[in-house]
Amino acid sequence: MDRRGFLTTGLAAGAGIVSASTTTGGKQNSEKIKIVGVSCSPRKGKTTATAVNVALEAAKTVNSRIETQLLDLGGMEISGWTGGATPGEGQQVKDDFDLLLPMLNDPVPNGLIIGSPSYFRSMSSLCKAFLEHLAVLRKPKLLLADVPVGALAVGAYRNGGQELVIEQIQTAMLCHEVIVVGGKPPAHQGATLWNAYNDDIMKDEFGIESAKKLGMRVAEAAILLAQK
Question: What percent of the chain has pLDDT over 70?
Answer without folding.
Answer: 82
